[in-house]
């Protein structure tokens, strides 16, 4: 029983990372009906920029916890800028030309470019990200939990809640919601929908960058760390529904827990299979996702 509980706890931590990245997919899809297929690279760049910043601050005789906290605003700013660049260079021209294949290929191409830049700047070897919390496990009700796993779950929930509160309470956030509900009507009401879409991409990449510095202390950091995470998060977004915030959380938990259980009880070589099977089933039976809403396209 303890082993099962241990696996579920580990799966929840991994699943929440999937959920945060899937949530970042939602942010762009809501306002522009486009996706950034280089989202994994946004996570990777956030982790590497965070690592460089933390190491510099530690070199200035600051403790790791304080360095980690001071690093977060820098990573947030970098994520906002990186997301805006993706929208300006890759998405806006394709949307203006009404080319769906254009923004898909452009975001993939930019992701590859960012990965190559990271390899040339930080190298191809995996790097260790210093943990801001003690690495000794806590024993809670017979289950050993790393403090950083708790931080991952809390941090993931906090960033998603903060974005939702911003969208519901701030003026600019309400413009984002209005654009998501009806872009044409929002434009007629005087909202600069192009700026809103740029902001949604910036916010999306910032969220992914934050996910990068959350997961980095419990894994290795490198130029290739985001590729698989971005792909799995996209599967989570499809499973949960691109229009449902609750869906990405549930979808992330399902995939994270399923992977850990499969890896332990069957084989690590098969841990990716159940999630892909679930993805195929959802696409076949409910293409809008478990919690998504089917939309009618007017022609």
From TrEMBL:
Statement: the UniProt record of this protein carries the keyword Isomerase: no
Any one GO BP annotation for this protein: amino acid transport
Membrane-protein topology: Multi-pass membrane protein
Pfam families cross-referenced by the UniProt entry: BPD_transp_2
GO cellular component: plasma membrane
Keywords, sorted A to Z: Amino-acid transport, Cell membrane, Membrane, Transmembrane, Transmembrane helix, Transport
MF terms (GO), sorted A to Z: transmembrane transporter activity
Family recorded in the similarity comment: Belongs to the binding-protein-dependent transport system permease family. LivHM subfamily.
Official protein name in the record: Inner-membrane translocator
Organism of provenance: Xanthobacter autotrophicus (strain ATCC BAA-1158 / Py2)
Origin organism lineage: Bacteria, Pseudomonadati, Pseudomonadota, Alphaproteobacteria, Hyphomicrobiales
């Amino acid at each position: 029983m303890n082993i099962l509980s241990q696996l579920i706890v580990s799966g929840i931590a991994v699943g929440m990372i999937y959920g945060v990245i899937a949530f970042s997919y939602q942010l762009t899809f809501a306002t522009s009906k486009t996706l950034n297929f280089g989202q994994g690279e946004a996570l990777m760049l956030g982790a590497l920029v965070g690592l460089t910043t933390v190491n510099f601050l530690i070199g200035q005789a600051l403790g790791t916890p304080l360095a980690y906290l001071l690093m977060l605003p820098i990573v947030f700013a970098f994520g906002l800028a990186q997301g805006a660049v993706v929208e300006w260079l890759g998405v806006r021209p394709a949307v203006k030309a009404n080319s769906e294949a254009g923004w898909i290929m452009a975001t993939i191409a930019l992701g590859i470019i960012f990965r190559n830049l990271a390899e040339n700047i930080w190298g191809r070897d995996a790097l260790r990200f210093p943990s801001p919390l003690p690495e000794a496990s806590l024993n809670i009700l017979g289950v050993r939990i790393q403090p950083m796993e708790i931080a991952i779950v809390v941090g993931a929930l906090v960033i998603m809640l903060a974005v939702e509160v911003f969208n519901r309470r701030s003026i600019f956030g309400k413009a984002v919601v209005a654009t998501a509900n009806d872009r044409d009507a929002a434009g007629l009401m005087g909202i600069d929908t192009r700026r809103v879409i740029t902001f949604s991409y910036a916010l999306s990449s910032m969220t992914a960058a934050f996910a990068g510095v959350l997961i980095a202390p419990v894994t290795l950091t490198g130029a290739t760390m985001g590729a698989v995470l971005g792909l799995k998060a996209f599967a989570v977004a499809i499973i949960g529904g691109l229009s449902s915030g609750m869906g990405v959380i549930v979808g992330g938990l399902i995939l994270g827990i399923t992977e850990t259980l499969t890896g332990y009880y069957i084989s690590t070589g098969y841990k990716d299979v159940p999630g892909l099977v679930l993805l195929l089933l959802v696409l076949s039976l409910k293409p809008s996702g478990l919690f998504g809403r089917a939309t009618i396209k007017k022609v």
